Amino acid sequence: MMRRKVSRIGTRGIALAATAIVTGLVLSACSGGSVPASTPASSASAKIKDGGTLTIGLAGTSIGSVDPSLSQTLVSSSILSTLCEPLYRESVDGKLQPALAASAPKFNSDSSSATVTLRDGLKFTDGTPIDAAAVKFTYDRNKTMKGSQRAGDLSSVTAMTVVDPKTVKIDFAGPTTPAAFSDVFTGRSGYPVSPTAVQKMGDAFGTAPVCAGGFVLKTQTTDTVRIERDPGKNFYDEKSLHLDAIEFKVVADPSVRFTNLQSGQFNVIQQLSPKDIAALKGNSDLSLISYPGRGFVNLSMNTKTLSDPLVRRALVESIDRKVISDTVYASLFPPTCSFMNEKSPLSSPEAQACITYDPKAAKADLKKAGAKTPVPVVLEFSSSTEFSQIATLVQAMGKETGFDIQLKPTDTTTNTADTKAGKNDLSIGQWTGVADPAGNIQLDPGAFLNQRGYDNPKMNALVDQLRKTADPTKQKALYGQVQTLINEDLPLMYLVRTAVIHGAGKSVAGVQYGPTGGIYAMRAGLTS
């Protein structure tokens, strides 16, 4: 039996990320979904003028597809959350609120199905009516379209049927928690798309997706998207809209994003560098938005090329999470060893069990595995500033214990494709997280984060059981078993838990920020 050396990471580091470190607004981290419904108080009191263009600087290296079915980056998610209205939004205090839906979902007695009823008179931006058939069309497309990134998100949904022109019935694999429902239908799986536009545009739909909202996509390049007000004024909440246009620009370097915020070229920026926080707090024209995130930064491992679990374990023992937290994220992204948030009521010592930094044990495990050192490893990553720093640290740490880690910087889209194709041994990724802990495991076949195709029947059975039980005691035990299996198989290594650190000009009002770091600006505006 493989020797297990595990310990527990405490919650002291989490408290740091939870502390209000800024002036301006601080949002609650307990909420879920992609789009919080309430407007920050600091913005709500400002008078918004009609017209103008809002410019948002997004963190990343590329946009990727903005087709809701194919979208797989936080950048595209932020664009879509402003372009498209979902079935539901979630408030900052975790309450589900109807958007395109007319009312809360109605669950049956055992929560294994729910009915959703739409508002009257809804239209897509091309004028096509939004009815139950369109919602069902979108569900079918998300489940069956080649390359769909939503199929995994919808793995707990077994069927959707049209009850009447305004109502759909959703069937689940088992009892479904409100958090699990929210994770699916407030996000990209909850954006109905126009069947008319899909059938007309075919594979080109992603170049100008048609959904429900107040804006239409006008131009798109590899790093910029511009959306403009729908001239047909088809949005049901047209009176809430103010801007003429919104531009999204992707900038990999957080210092460049901050410089552009200071100069006024950007009105809002995503993911401020911790080293720029003091300068932002000293600028009376800017506000800092900070709150704990739900997700994590991880190192995924190719279990085919790194086939010996002892070698993978040695690699984990070589990496000091605290150094990464302190050096790259100024301790604002606390170290973590688990998919499970340390503060979750469903957590346990078993769910937080950790293979800790231990260079001596790493060398011993490589020797026990009979590995010829240095062990060659290719680490691929999207070349953002933070991921580049992590890669350099991992390379240096690995060298100390017997690994020769070659770095392969690239863009997000290429990195994802190479990881799926098995063209690297390691890759750095970031999962933005969801409210339901089961949705953060992401290690069953078809799961969005399971890009390497990890497939262990024991893991699949545990995830299946979690989908079928709503008993917190049983869930807690199952989550502990999941973490135990992760520490045995090591398909990935959790590095740090995320926090959201955004910046905005004080002339901006009505922008809302999702718990995963997304930016929702459909109803935003500039102040007079």
Question: Could you explain how this protein is built, in words?
Answer:
- The protein has 528 residues and is of the alpha+beta class.
- It contains 15 helices and 23 strands.
- The strands form six sheets. It has a ten-stranded mixed beta sheet with strand order 10-11-12-3-13-19-14-18-16-17, sandwiched between helices.
- The longest helix has 18 residues.
- The radius of gyration is 23 Å and the shape is globular.
- The N terminus is likely disordered.
- Keywords: Signal.
- This is ABC transporter substrate-binding protein.
- It is a lipid-anchor.
Question: What value does the Rg take, in angstroms?
Answer: 23 Å
Strand content: 15-25%
Unreliable stretches? 1-44
By DSSP (H or I, 4+ residues per run), the number of helices equals 15
Largest sheet descriptor: 10 strands, mixed
Secondary structure: helix percent: 25-40%
**Widest β-sheet, arrangement of strands:** 10-11-12-3-13-19-14-18-16-17
Question: How many beta-strand runs?
Answer: 23
Approximate shape: globular
What is the straight-line distance between the termini?
A: 68 Å
- Indicate the mean pLDDT: 89
The structure class reads alpha+beta
Organism: Microbacterium capsulatum
InterPro entries: Peptide/Ni-bd, SBP_5, SBP_5_CS, SBP_5_dom
Keywords: Signal
Membrane topology: Lipid-anchor
